[in-house]
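Could you join me in thinking about how sequence relates to backbone shape in a protein? We need material for that, and I hope you will provide a protein of your own picking. Label the sequence line and the structure token line clearly, so we can match residues to local backbone shapes. Would you write everything just below, so we can both look at the same thing?
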Amino acid sequence: MNFLVTGGSRGIGRRIVEQALLAGHDVAFTWNQDAEAAAALQRHAAEIAPQRRCLALRLDMADGAAIDAVCEEADQVLDGIDVLVGNAAINRPGLAVSLPDGDWRAVMEVNLDGNFRLCRTLLPGFIARRRGRIVLISSVAAHGMSGQIAYNVSKAGLIAMAATLAREYGRRGITANALVLGLVDTDMSRETAAPKTFEHWLGQCPTGRLGTPDDVAQAVLYLASDGASFINGQAIHLTGGLNWVP
């Protein structure tokens, strides 16, 4: 299968790219800010999966024309896209009473509008081939967390998007699911999450640990497989059993 993974140059996205390559798939991934991280991943891909194709494409998820162009290039180079992994996201923390319009709009344009445009662009190919897999990376923040209303709403929207796409296109061999992530141990979460969040998670999570990028990557690969063809329109909580945060 051929994957398109957004936000693939670091963290969770990078591990999804690596695991897909190791599983024998070709991958196009997008990046926006860190050109060196994208180049480093391509070099690493050539070492761990020399027989596979790994394409790095710069993409601003708020740019609709760029989304169309990236999908077209990935489709041409890889001879079609079978799996979309909507992983790229941004956050603009702020309370509802004071969040500026610009911050709200920026989060929605990337996290929600960008994923909609990707799905809309790739759906005709999925429909023509009567097979497609859409995996949208959501978060327990979708249930509501203080201080980041825009991010929360955007992640809740992805759950609704997956459910709607499943209903509209399930009979065309297309599945769409949302992975609702708990606290995953990445450089980004270490930089942005408060220490008390880590303490709470480790103290309350039934599994007794944080999630890892490998946990997410393996779930994505399963949802992309033929074995998951009857899983559709679901919000799958990948949380170790703790489906909320303080």
